[in-house]
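for the record, two folds in this file. i put them one after another cuz i was lazy. first one right below, seq on top, structure tokens after. the second one comes after a little note so u can tell where it starts
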Amino acid sequence: MNQSTAEIDVNWTGKPRRFVFVLLENFSLLPFAAALECLRIANRMAGKTLYDWRVLGEGGESQTSSAGTVFKLEGDLDELGRDDVIMVCGGIEIQRATTRKLLNWLRREARKGPKVGGLCTGSYALARAGLLDGKKATIHWENHDSFAEEFEDVQLTKRVFAIDGNRITTAGGTSSIDMMLKVLADDHGPDLANAVADQMIYSSIRTDQDTQRLSVPTRIGVRHPKLAQVIQKMEANIEEPISPSILAQEVGMSTRQLERLFRRYLNRSPKRYYMELRLEKARNLLMQTDMSVINVALACGFASPSHFSKCYRAHYATTPYRERGSQGTREPV
């Protein structure tokens, strides 16, 4: 066996640690597959079965991913052991996928004291079950605003993953790899975790201190420090917008200079850019929560529903009420 596939010496003779992946309707493939592959490769690199796993879901027959791929399940939401690690795999339309049966099962199993995690939007199901109250947690950045509005008792972060006691949450995508590498390192040492990362050609391992999204300069394709500072302030102050004159003053510029900066690099005024950020958040809240249109307007810095509706229609060519109606009625949880 060549060096790249040489076994890692893991001094361990106990029972395999079992992960139970619970697939919800429209779950995201990447976070699930990434987590599972880490376990498979860990067994291969150690030359022994450190981990095993089951794939369950409501009904116990099959579950469909957001990509349309159908996965055969190994069982329904069965009773598990205290030493099992539960990983709830979410994806799109997470509110609809979070059923009453799932919530009752999560609460029952959590009372036994196992580790319970949420991959991608699986964090939402944990929060609805009350399992994240008072805990640090994370969720995909696209769901961050709606989650924060709905679960005030959760210490929501924008990190790639969060581990707080026996609760584990990830932001989705490749963050499952970072989280699982942390679990592997804690269980069997960093050599095994690094070997798994090498096998996955994963060269930049992130920690629970790394944020999800690209930096502002990378996202907007512009590396101007003062422009990045202003946009960061805008993103952090959606509910109570700051005037362009104050934003300019805070970064040591005149209002006219700030206007020119935005026109040059983003082809729009600071006011227009700020409005687009607020409307983007509003759309996320309309699509992902049951907040009233009035409360969405207030959460995004609009003083009146009429002004909010006018701005929303100008940007999205539909009204907030029609946007909400286009999502259909959600099944009650």
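(here's the note) second protein begins now
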Amino acid sequence: MRGRFYMLHYRPNGLETARLGVVVAKKLAKRANLRNLVKRIARETFRRHREVLPAMDLVVRLHAPVAQATRAELNFDLLALLQRLPRT
């Protein structure tokens, strides 16, 4: 699935809870502090919604430059993707 900034890959994992991986390429976020911020936002959004997510392995990838994006835009984009996950 693709949002404005993030791309979400998912696969059922056979466990009781969801797991998360985050990938932020240097090509899209040049500075390390920006890459770390994007990953921190993704992990925090996942942590807050983990109990309602289906048991899947999730990989969140950045697919658009975020230099001008706000934290709220990044949060909203990932949350919209998490809500679109198929419920099993």
